[in-house]
Amino acid sequence: MTNVRLPAEWEPQSAILIAWPHAGTDWAPRLESVEETYIALVAGITGFEPVVICVADADLQIYAEARLRSACVDMGQVRFIEAPYNDTWLRDSGPICLRGQDGFKLMDFRFTGWGGKYEASLDDQLVGTLTGAGVFRDDYVQSVDFALEGGAIETDGRGTLLTTWRCLHERHPDASREQITQTLQSTLHQQRVLWLDHGYLEGDDTDAHIDTLARFAPDDAIVYQACDDPADAHHAELTAMAGELAALRTLDGAPYTLYPLPWAQPILDGGRRLAASYANYLIVNGAVLMPAYGDPADDPAAKVLAKAYPGRQIVQIPCRALIWQNGSLHCVTMQLPEGLLAL
């Protein structure tokens, strides 16, 4: 395969891949509330492109379809595929798709349940399951014996990868930064890897996935989660991260245009703080779907994203239910590049 690269998320897409929550997942205690978020998410996606929904069995498909129809979702934009899964965080268990001049390469990295924190045997097989079911037009899959989640990496589509040392070091404690850099460059066809040493969110059990902290945007820009409250426990780390981002340079040697996102007030669940990051947004064809938390910072965050992604609609999706399980909007989705989908 020639001219292989990892596309940026804002490039044209075939569909968004998600998995419907059910009683056999960790969502069971709050299934009703998270289903409402999924209905809003599917409605938001289908306004712009198709969505492929993984369901555990035929009964769940019937149920999910009924819920979506009752919400007046455009079912002509919805495809269902039956596949077993442990949980619904498809950003981390779904395929990382490389585009070549003559097709696609689906990268099937090891998924370890974020370093062995959770059972993940079914999720680790998801790429093979979907490929075997004929979801993708090009079914060339490369299995990689290296633990990596899609939420741990960001790309500009032009050969630069952004990630955090905290996460990748936790997954590979015996590997040096140089060794991990070489693996990322070779498997994902990147010219370089940019590392952040600061930044974290309370309530995030991914060990500082980059998609909760900083995201590439078109025209050499980076959108990032800021914290302007000196009394907040995150202030020092996120301020240090902002300094790291300001010091980064493009391949041409210029500084990145930076878009700081506002900081939501603490959201607590039984005394546990939840990871309410606005950086965990999803880009679709013609729009950006952003997590909303019922916070005064929701609308200011939407204005920042409108500046970073001009010409795209900004659609707010209520995500308080998602952050109860430590992730948000981007975490439960995976984009499929244009031309990949066979359904």
Write the layout of secondary structure elements.
Blueprint: E1 13-19, H1 31-46, E2 51-55, H2 58-70, E3 78-82, H3 90-93, E4 96-100, E5 103-110, H4 113-116, H5 121-124, H6 126-132, E6 141-147, E7 154-155, E8 160-164, H7 165-171, H8 177-188, E9 192-196, E10 214-217, E11 221-225, H9 235-247, E12 257-261, E13 268-269, E14 272-273, E15 282-284, E16 287-292, H10 298-308, E17 313-318, H11 320-323, E18 334-337
Describe this structure in words.
This is Peptidylarginine deiminase. GO terms for molecular function: agmatine deiminase activity; protein-arginine deiminase activity. It holds the Pfam family PAD_porph. The protein has helices spanning 31-46, 58-70, 90-93, 113-116, 121-124, 126-132, 165-171, 177-188, 235-247, 298-308, 320-323; strands spanning 13-19, 51-55, 78-82, 96-100, 103-110, 141-147, 154-155, 160-164, 192-196, 214-217, 221-225, 257-261, 268-269, 272-273, 282-284, 287-292, 313-318, 334-337. With 343 residues, the protein is α/β, with parallel strands linked by helices. It has a single domain, classed as L-arginine/glycine Amidinotransferase, Chain A (5-stranded Propeller). The protein has a 4-stranded mixed β-sheet with strand order 3-2-1-18. The model has no long low-confidence stretch (mean pLDDT 96).
- Flag low-confidence runs: none
Provide the CATH top-level class: Alpha Beta
* Share of residues in helices: 25-40%
Sheet with most strands: 4 strands, mixed
Task: Classify the fold: give the CATH topology.
Answer: L-arginine/glycine Amidinotransferase, Chain A
Q: What is the radius of gyration computed over CA atoms, rounded to a whole number of angstroms?
A: 19 Å
Give the SSE order as H and E letters: EHEHEHEEHHHEEEHHEEEHEEEEEHEHE
**N-end to C-end Cα span:** 23 Å
The percentage of residues in β strands lies in 25-35%
The CATH fourth-level homologous superfamily: L-arginine/glycine Amidinotransferase, Chain A
Number of DSSP helices?
11
Mean of residue pLDDT values: 96
Organism: Pseudoxanthomonas spadix (strain BD-a59)
GO molecular function: agmatine deiminase activity; protein-arginine deiminase activity
Keywords: Hydrolase
InterPro entries: Peptidyl-Arg-deiminase_porph
